[in-house]
Structure formats: structure tokens, C-alpha cells
């Protein structure tokens, strides 16, 4: 199967391409399409990236080609990593609306081109932010089940790792999902957490200990306070040590936020989670992941985009697996869904 990466020469796109090749996710008979923009720096650099990848990995690299126009994108899985990101500098916030304003044109151009020139089968993985807006635009052009935003999967892998660190076990022993909106408005779904080797009572005790008597009703205030404390800490080492002292779900929000503020960005982790999702789609077996998808009433009677656990396979996602969220999860999911809808509305009206 073939993969196309839009925004291949960006920080995230380049990591995705490199990891796809280095980790031998694609056989040598498959094609990896590196997609840039005509003219300008990325249109030139995408040819250079192709040459560099061949230089490094010729023996096991898939077929590498370059596309510079949305109409030329051809693949079974299309990864959307093109578009602007918030500045990776402390004290330079960029609102979701400002980012949406920058990236709505990118989402729309590729959605229209894929709808018109695509195979009608490609699965689209949205990495670019706001990921919920990208999913909404792509899903309305291509059909909702072929489009999945990877922010919730990245948040899920972080959640599992933070829980594993707190319990002193390896990450692969921890299951559980994060839903909601990617970033500060994520929803840690504690009711879905499973820890291999622990029975139900042991798990309940472990989860209660990790949560420390908190519920998600106070989570937004905790996140706001965490950001304030981190913004007031000029020493990066101290900031990350402070994060280490917090509970796992708060660390899931705070650590990547601080990483981005440090100037390092989160390109490697984002790419790794994207590869994981792409590999799962290519694998062909139905596997449960978390992703931002366009709902039609499957959870809390919601329509609109929301991060939830879903079954994915080669045709996209098929089912939502969140029958009974805990009451505090349901309340936060509903509130976050409202915020996503409100944030997306002006752009979706504009696109109609
Ligand atoms: N979902 C996540 O978990 C997550 C994490 C980190 C970053 N991101 C997002 O990924 C996106 C890329 O981030 P980055 O750090 O790589 O940014 P970057 O600025 O380094 O790269 C963006 C790339 O997109 C390209 N691009 C812009 N418009 C294009 C178009 N119309 N066609 C083809 N290419 C185009 C640019 O030339 C550039 O190469 C951002 O939207 C960012 O917010 C998402």
C-alpha cells in the first residue's frame, strides 16, 4: 500500500517520512509520496529530502516520489502534516482561531483535490492543527469514516506512558484512551484504563491512587493553574521537574505544552504516534485506537468532531467503542464537544 505525506519537509512531516522509511513500515514495492508546495522553499526541499532519504536508506526504502500539487496526490493513506504550527516560543501564544485561519485553506485545497481526483478509497490521517477542523473539512468532502485525526492517539500514548511511569511498569502493560479535543481540552478516559496483570479490584485501587480523589470536573482549572506555574518558572529543568510531581493525566497536557514552549517542538513524538496509526491502518486487522472523528450520534448523541476510541482498519474507522463513559467523563466530553463545534462553526459556514 502507498502513503503520501503532505507537508513532507516540515518538522513533523520530515520526521514522519524518515521514521516511515527507517522503521521499514513500507515494503520496497510500496510508494511513499513526498508532497510539498510548488515554488518557494518546500517545493525545492522536497526533492532534496527525497535524495537524502535514498542516500540514507536505499537498500530498504520504498519507491520515493515527489508531488507539488494537490491534484497529484495518490495513495492509500494520506497523512496531512502541511500547514502552520503555533510558534514554539515561550510567551508567544497562538489561538486556535488564528491557527484555523492559517490552515483552513490547506485543509480545503487537499480535501477538494482528493474528492475530485482521488481513488475514493484513501484513508486520511490528520496531524495538522486544529486537528478537529481538519477532520471536519476532510470528512465532509470524503466521507466521515475515511478520516481520522491523530491527536487523540498521541494523547492516548502519552496517557499510557504517564500511567506506566507512575506505576513503575512498561507502557505496553497499560491500556486506556484519551478523547476530547487534542491539547488542553483532552479528556482522559480513566474508565477505559486496563493494566495487564491486575484484576478489577487491584486496578480500581491503582487508578484511585493515581487520581488522588480528583474528578474531571476540576480538570480545566488544574490545567490553567499548571500553565500559570510553568509560565512563571524560567528554568526549563525545574519546569519539567515540577511536571514530574503532578498526577498522570495533568502531565499528559503539561509535558507536551512545556516541550513546545521550550522551542524543541514535539515533532519526534508526534511522528512516532502517526507512524503507529498508519501502521495499524496498513496492517489490515481491525484494532482499537483513539482518534478525532466526525460523529453521527454514536457518543452522547453528538454530531460533530470529537476524539473517541474507534476501531480502525484499511477502510478507515468503523465503530466507536465508548458505551458507558463515567459521569465526569460524559460531562467533560459534552462540554469539550460544544467548544469544538463553536470553534469549527465559522470555518465550516465559510466553506459551505
Ligand atoms: N496533531 C498533533 O499531535 C500535532 C503535533 C505537532 C504538530 N502538529 C501540527 O502539524 C502541522 C505541521 O507542524 P510543523 O511543526 O511540521 O510545521 P512546519 O512549519 O515545520 O512545517 C509545515 C510544512 O507544511 C508545508 N505546507 C504549508 N502549506 C502547504 C501546502 N498547501 N501544501 C503542501 N505543503 C504545505 C510547509 O511548506 C512546511 O513544510 C501544524 O499544523 C502543527 O500544529 C500536530
UniProtKB/TrEMBL annotation:
SUPFAM superfamilies given in the database record: LDH C-terminal domain-like, NAD(P)-binding Rossmann-fold domains
Record key words, sorted: NAD, Oxidoreductase
Pfam family of the protein (one): Ldh_1_N
Residue ranges of every copy of the Lactate/malate dehydrogenase N-terminal domain listed in the record: 2-142
InterPro entries from the UniProt entry: L-lactate/malate_DH, Lactate/malate_DH_N, Lactate_DH/Glyco_Ohase_4_C, NAD(P)-bd_dom_sf
Keyword field contains NAD: yes
Protein name (record): Lactate dehydrogenase
The species this protein was found in: Cellulomonas fengjieae
Amino acid at each position: 500500500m502507498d502513503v503520501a505525506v503532505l507537508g513532507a519537509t516540515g518538522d513533523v512531516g520530515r520526521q514522519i517520512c524518515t521514521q516511515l522509511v527507517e522503521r521499514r513500515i513500507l515494503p520496497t514495492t510500496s510508494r511513499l509520496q513526498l508532497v510539498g508546495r510548488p515554488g518557494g522553499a518546500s517545493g525545492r526541499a522536497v526533492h532534496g529530502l527525497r535524495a537524502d532519504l535514498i542516500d540514507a536508506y536505499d537498500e530498504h526504502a520504498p519507491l520515493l516520489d515527489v508531488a507539488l500539487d494537490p491534484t497529484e496526490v495518490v495513495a492509500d493513506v494520506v497523512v496531512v502534516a502541511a500547514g502552520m504550527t503555533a510558534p514554539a516560543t515561550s510567551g508567544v501564544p497562538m489561538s486556535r482561531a488564528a491557527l484555523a485561519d492559517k490552515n483552513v485553506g490547506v485543509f480545503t485545497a487537499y480535501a477538494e483535490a482528493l474528492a475530485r481526483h482521488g481513488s475514493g478509497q484513501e484513508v486520511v490521517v490528520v496531524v495538522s492543527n486544529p486537528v478537529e477542523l481538519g477532520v471536519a473539512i476532510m470528512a465532509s468532502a470524503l466521507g466521515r469514516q475515511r478520516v481520522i485525526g491523530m491527536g487523540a492517539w498521541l494523547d492516548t500514548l502519552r496517557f499510557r506512558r504517564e500511567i506506566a511511569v507512575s506505576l513503575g511498569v512498561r507502557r505496553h502493560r497499560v491500556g486506556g484512551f484519551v478523547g476530547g479535543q487534542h491539547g488542553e481540552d483532552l479528556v482522559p478516559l480513566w474508565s477505559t484504563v486496563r493494566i495487564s496483570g491486575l484484576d478489577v479490584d487491584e486496578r480500581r485501587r491503582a487508578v484511585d491512587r493515581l487520581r488522588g480523589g480528583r474528578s474531571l470536573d476540576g480538570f480545566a482549572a488544574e490545567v490553567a493553574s499548571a500553565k500559570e506555574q510553568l509560565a512563571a518558572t524560567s528554568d526549563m529543568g525545574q519546569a519539567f521537574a515540577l511536571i514530574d510531581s503532578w498526577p498522570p493525566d495533568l502531565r499528559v497536557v503539561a509535558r507536551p505544552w512545556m516541550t513546545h514552549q521550550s522551542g524543541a517542538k514535539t515533532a519526534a513524538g508526534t511522528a512516532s504516534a502517526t507512524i503507529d496509526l498508519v501502521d495499524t491502518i496498513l496492517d489490515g486487522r481491525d484494532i482499537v485506537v483513539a482518534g478525532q472523528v466526525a460523529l453521527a450520534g454514536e457518543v452522547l448523541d453528538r454530531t460533530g468532531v470529537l476524539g473517541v476510541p474507534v476501531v480502525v482498519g484499511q477502510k478507515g474507522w468503523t465503530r466507536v467503542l465508548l458505551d458507558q463513559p463515567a459521569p465526569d467523563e460524559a460531562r467533560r466530553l459534552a462540554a469539550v464537544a460544544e467548544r469544538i463545534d463553536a470553534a469549527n462553526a465559522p470555518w465550516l459556514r465559510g466553506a459551505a
